[in-house]
Design brief:
Layout lengths: L1 E4 L3 E7 L6 E8 L6 H16 L9 E6 L3 E7 L4 E2 H8 L4 H20 L2 E2 L8 E3 L8 E3 L6 E2 L18 H4 L7 H15 L7
Antiparallel strand pairs: 1-2, 2-3, 3-5, 4-5, 6-8, 7-10, 8-9
GO molecular function: ATP binding; metal ion binding; protein serine/threonine kinase activity
Pfam family, one: Pkinase
InterPro entries: CDPK_Ser/Thr_kinases, Kinase-like_dom_sf, Prot_kinase_dom, Protein_kinase_ATP_BS, Ser/Thr_kinase_AS
Length: 199
């Protein structure tokens, strides 16, 4: 069963034969991993997910496998879907609920930065809910644009998504602070139901 589609891959529901336990499996076609950089990005995403394993607000990484055609990333299944879809369904969150979600998002930023990772693409589509319940845990996913932070380095590549990208990224001169900007934009959307900037 298909759970979602991204720029590089498709995520499927998969079942572990020995236990019957359900997981999410992101399958990336090797045909899309054309350049040396594409392959390095894939390796880095796997390394970062392994490195962040065990953090409560980050999707748990189970393993990576490859066959002739694809690379498969197996992760915990978050049955509640994307935060983006939950915001669309609700319109916006109450201050109390937004504060709880905001705390989880800030915990992700803190955990990533404490462990030397800059996410670089925080947005509601990259947060999943552990279940369909109102008190579901919020978990970050999609570390495809993430990097290990090199202290003192000024980053210059343009990454991220419209609405959530910090001005410093567009100026090609940034550091890990850009994740805090993106978290602030998400919090604004949780409270108001609309993005703070339309340009």
């Amino acid at each position: 069963k298909e759970l979602g589609k991204g720029q590089f891959g498709v995520t499927y529901l998969c079942i572990e034969n020995s236990t019957g336990k359900q997981y999410a499996c992101k399958t990336i076609s090797k045909r899309k991993l054309i350049t040396k950089n594409d392959k390095e990005d894939m390796r880095r995403e796997i390394q970062i997910m392994q490195h962040l394993s065990g953090q409560p607000n980050i999707v748990e990484f189970k393993g990576a496998y490859e066959d002739k055609l694809s690379v498969h990333l197996v992760m915990e299944l978050c049955a509640g879907g994307e935060l983006f879809d939950r915001i669309i369904a609700k319109g916006h969150y109450s201050e109390r609920a937004a504060a709880s979600m905001g705390r989880a998002i800030v915990n992700v930023v803190h955990a990533c930065h404490f462990m030397g990772v800059m996410h670089r693409d925080l947005k509601p589509e990259n947060f999943l809910l552990s279940s369909k319940g109102e008190n579901a845990l919020l978990k970050a996913t999609d570390f495809g644009l993430s990097v290990f932070i090199e202290e003192g380095k000024v980053y210059r590549d343009i990454v991220g998504s419209a609405y959530y990208v910090a001005p410093e990224v567009l100026k090609r001169k940034y550091g890990k602070e850009i994740d805090i900007w993106s978290a602030g934009v998400i919090l604004y959307i949780l409270l108001s139901g609309v993005p703070p900037f339309w340009a």
